[in-house]
Amino acid sequence: xxxxxxxxxxxxxxxxxxxxxxxxxxxxxxxxxxxxxxxxxxxxxxxxxxxxxxxxxxxxxxxxxxxxxxxxxxxxxxxxxxxxxxxxxxxxxxxxxxxxxxxxxxxxxxxxxxxxxxxxxxxxxxxxxxxxxxxxxxxxxxxxxxxxxxxxxxxxxxxxxxxxxxxxxxxxxxxxxxxxxxxxxxxxxxxxxxxxxxxxxxxxxxxxxxxxxxxxxxxxxxxxxxxxxxxxxxxxxxxxxxxxxxxxxxxxxxxxxxxxxxxxxxxxxxxxxxx
Amino acid sequence: xxxxxxxxxxxxxxxxxxxxxxxxxxxxxxxxxxxxxxxxxxxxxxxxxxxxxxxxxxxxxxxxxxxxxxxxxxxxxxxxxxxxxxxxxxxxxxxxxxxxxxxxxxxxxxxxxxxxxxxxxxxxxxxxxxxxxxxxxxxxxxxxxxxxxxxxxxxxxxxxxxxxxxxxxxxxxxxxxxxxxxxxxxxxxxxxxxxxxxxxxxxxxxxxxxxxxxxxxxxxxxxxxxxxxxxxxxxxxxxxxxxxxxxxxxxxxxxxxxxxxxxxxxxxxxxxxxxxxxxxxxxxxxxxxxxxxxxxxxxxxxxx
Lengths: 275, 304
Fold this sequence. Notes:
The complex is a heterodimer of chains A (275) and B (304). Chain A is an alpha/beta fold and 275 residues long. Helix content of chain A is 34%, strand content 20%. Chain B is α+β, with helices and mostly antiparallel strands and 304 residues long.
């Protein structure tokens, strides 16, 4: 799904952010990108979202070589990728609904379909019923969840997040990570950059550790890869359950149908078909 | 297609809503555009009304043909018949020497003095009314030359000087209007473009986010284009109101002047066509101004 092949990234000021980096993420895989700030995590994510272009090397995203994407095709390219930011990047003069609907409006989706999918996405992040709120009326954790809803509303095959828990306290961070896990469970390829090792230790997910723009073996003892078919480890599942129990939604049915829907890619976001 | 149309309408209405959030700034910008559009509109009114006021001008350029004395009335009739055949002649009045004398006696008040004359000193005359299409200076001169060439004709009177002058003046004003309209159109585009440029700077973050989630340049540009169109429509409306005020203020004094000249001339406002042209010019200029500004400045804003 994502393949870095001897990628170099050098900025105009001469700083080399990535050097000879090779990395492959399979479709439906989830991985954490770790490392100190300045290690190249953000640069790597920016290459995937075509915010920056590689200086040298080949980067294949969703079957497309980014070097072959002309400037005019960049918007269409970005629509295949959901991006979550540390600072949410919500538009403060619009409602939650309008914020989440933005990618669908850009894609030219019809009004009724937009309403349906926005509600489904907000449901996924536990914010159904807050459509008409303004972003600043929400807590930071809720704003981050709106950011996630916006990233997934157009059902991208790839979801990338740059320090999505950077501004959140530990409990909220676990919540947000669980949301990412659930999207991964329905087949979305997820890559999350974070330096919060304590938080990441709670999730048995593949780690990619960056140092000075290169991949180095991870310093801690977590398992390297966890394919999405592997059931979540007990502690992660427990955390997710705890979160779900702590956030009952009005009108939500018993746990079982929700769980089954979340795990069924065909019903992802209430849609038939691909995810 | 339906969704596409709905989306455009929403953007259009959304742009209007955003403008209405900054009423004073919007009003001032629209006012500047309105004044810039009103100037050529008013000059157009000046020309249009001058043409209406001088519309009886093909009557004013009749030719007076005086015959040599003595010429028989029958010969005058024959000349009149021949001239009537010409395609540039609408009609001909014959004024015989006797009729002319009677009229002169009646109008001049020299009745007693004329009685002292044994002979009628006046020649026979024709008044030639040219057709409207041929009431131009060049044609009239040609017609006069042809009539002068007739052996029985003594004199052809044609006062084209004032026609030439008026036409020259109107032509000069018309050119000035085109020039002024061109300059003012540039001004309108500059005003709209600058306003849009500031708007883009204020909404930088929104533009970045939209591009991050896959919005194309065209998508990001669209609301700004509609904003420009609204400025144009608003400016055209203000210009239309301003010309209406000008016409209303001038109607009475101009009517008075016309009355003093014995004319029933009434100043005319903008007709339907000029109004539509005004509106169309507003829309096109607003769109163009915002298009240029948005294309230039949106390209520079890329997420980082």
